[in-house]
Amino acid sequence: MKKYVGCDLGGTNLKAAVVDPLTGELSGVTSVPTLAREGHEAVLARMAQLIDTVIAASGVDRSEIGGVGIGAPGTMDMERGMSLFMPNLIGNWIEVPITGVISNAVHLPTFLINDVRAMTVGEWKLGAGRGIDTVACLALGTGIGGGLIIGGKLHLGIGGSAGELGHQTINFDGPPCGCGNHGCLETYASGPAITAVGLKYITQGQATRIATLVDYDLNKVNPKVIAQAAKEGDPIAIDIYERAGYYLGIAVANILVAVSPQRVVIGGGVAEAGDLLLEPVRRTVKERVFVVPVDQIDIVPAALGVNAGIIGAGLWAQIQTQA
Ligand SMILES: [Zn+2]
Prior knowledge:
The chain is α/β, with parallel strands linked by helices. It is 39% helix and 20% strand. The strands form 3 sheets. It has a 5-stranded mixed beta sheet with strand order 3-2-1-4-7. Strand 5 and strand 6 (82-85) form a beta hairpin. The longest helix is centred in the C-terminal third of the chain and has 25 residues, at 235-259. The two termini are 16 Å apart. The chain binds zinc ion (ZN). Residues 167, 177, 179, 181, 184, 186 line the site of zinc ion (ZN).
């Protein structure tokens, strides 16, 4: 069976590997700095070189590589293989023909997918959504991304724009969001949103374990530290995750009534808080959803870890070349 290159275009690093689509096993894993400030042409040249390096390092014969999947942050036109809007990457990424440039350079069929949609495919095929045909996936990090598997297929919508679960309105009077809306889930439950609440309590002079854990250095406050404080019993830190989980629970409730998935998979750095975050989500969903069978829906942490995006991008290339 053919193998596929999965490539993850991140704001900081470009990572790629050869993916075995049956097991998710990676070979030739390599990471280089994205250096987005050098512009998209330089980044794409580096990506093409990285793909060649990874194939060579994997020991897999080039004739056994079926294609390349590229996961990228932001919105894209999947059919034309173009980036449309990538706010987390410096430089001009509007209508950059990513798949055209890469396939010309590496001579392999190349496909583009949003990074969290790639993670969704990975978790569905080989991770926490395995064996299930309708799955919703959320990734909570710097932003909140999402993806939907409906009836055994990644749900694409127009140009692949479906599944932006972090940009559903949670509070119609809420704060502005980077997407142009206000009151999106992302403004309440992303890493920066959780950090901001922690900082607010500290600067208000509240006694919290968060402050002592970072030795009063506000630059060191992050969701991980706040989760640590919560696990040590700090009531403010517990409350911060309760609130984030409450908002996330409202978002998940909205997803359940629209899609009725058998499983909701929650990943990304913020989800490393585990049940601190997931328990209020489950509670909120039970309090709010009555029109779908909530007792048949599992809300679970992601299983594939930091390489989910690479695995999913490789699997996406397989799905597309076999379509
Ligand atoms: Zn938004």
